[in-house]
Every structure is written in structure tokens, then in C-alpha cells.
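Methods, example record. To illustrate the input and output format used throughout this study, we show the complete record for Ribosomal RNA small subunit methyltransferase A. The sequence lines were provided to the predictor; the line carrying C-alpha cells was produced by it.
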Amino acid sequence: MNARPKKSFGQHFLHEKRYIERIVGAIAPQADDRVVEIGPGEGALTLPLLAAAGRLTAIELDTDLIPALQARASAVGTLEIIHADVLKVDLTAMARRLGVPRVRLAGNLPYYISSPILFHCVEHAGAIGDMHFMLQKEVVDRMAAEPGSKVYGRLSVMLQLACRVEPLFTVPPGAFRPPPKVDSAVVRLVPLAAHERHGTDPQRLHAIVKAAFAQRRKTLANGLKGLLDADAIARAGIDPKARAETLAPGDFVRLATLEH
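The corresponding predicted structure is encoded as:
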């Protein structure tokens, strides 16, 4: 199966066996798992995951890829392919339909839309056991960045408040067809347990974080105008003259809980 990659879908098909084996080994699917793959493409990960788990659900937007993948999978296990844009799939409802409290997500995500997919998954974190994604390495670096890093930002904060973020290994361009212009990396995300999660209004938190990082050179007092004033920021024990990249994720939770 050698489909023509479509630029409109940001397709880069993984083909190098040793990296496929490393990813499947990192996921380590078990027979009772309900694995959901986002963007199976030609099935490089789908078939070995299916062989290990016995059944798998895949979400694929490109209708041209579905018949061949379904045919190849028929001799391996039970593959359900959902033709949909993952951003429109209710992952919580999917877990209920599959009869499990949590699904396990995997996928080689299209780089041009990776951040929206990550935020969408975080919205359904309560129904997800873990996630193993291949992404542009620069995105994985931002996901795992610590305060003070040049790449620490909105993505870092929002993901780290919802998940443990563990970069696993880098994948070079030559492992794909066609080769992307950048290195890729595999990351593991494990949603935090209920008692570890913040209880803040998610929309309020998102607004605070987005505004704080909108212009990185601005102080918090300037960046959060209209949301919080300097006195309120100080009440949270945070310097209003500080910049967003110096704050830990928990600091943003404190800001979001302030009255406004």
C-alpha cells in the first residue's frame, strides 16, 4: 500500500520498521485495551497495534485510505474505522460506546493541526488513559518546557496542568514518506488523576493563559488588562511586573481563581 501523500492533510507516512517497533513498544498495548488511533494513514502503526490488542478503532479523514487499510486489517484483528475529523469526535462518548472508562490514544498527528488536536484531547482527559503521539519535535519541546525556557508558553502550561508530559525519542525525517523538513518526536501524555487536577473554570483559565502569553515581552499587569489588575495579581502572591514565561503552571491556576 503506497498511497500518494496529500499536502492538504499534512500527510507524512511513517515507514521505517525500527521506529514503528519503538513506538509500538512504548505504547505496549494489551489485549483488554481499547486503543483509538488518530490518522492511521497507511497503517504502519495500526497493524502492529491491532495484532497486539486484537481490536482497534481508528479515526481517519482521508476516504481514499480507508478501503485498503480495512482490507489489510481483516486478517489481523477487528478494526473499526471512523471517517471523521477528530476535532469533531466526542472522545468521552466514544469511550462510553466502547464500554470502557478510558481509551488509549495513539497517532502520528498532522503537524499543521497538532495543537488543536492536543487541546481537544485535553478537554476529554477524564476519558483517556494515556496518549502516545508523534509530533514535530519543536512542538514536543514546547509541550515539556519548564518555566524560564524560551519555548515555554501556552501549550506548555495547558498540557502540564492536565497531563504528565514525557518526551520519549526523536524520529528523523528519513523515517517518513515524503520526508518532512523537520525532526519529529514521540511523546507520552498521561492525564492527571482527579485529585491532581485543578478545579478552576477551564474557560477562565484558558483566557488568562492566552492573554498572558499573547505578547511575551509584556508584564503580567499589561498583558492581563481587562482580566486582572495589578492589585489582584499581587494578591495571588505574584509580581505584576513579572512576565508570563517565569510563572509555573500552578501560578496561572491561582490567577484564574481570583475574582474579576
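Annotations derived from this record:
Residues 7-196 form a domain with the Rossmann fold fold (CATH 3.40.50.150).
Confidence is low (pLDDT under 50) at residues 5-10.
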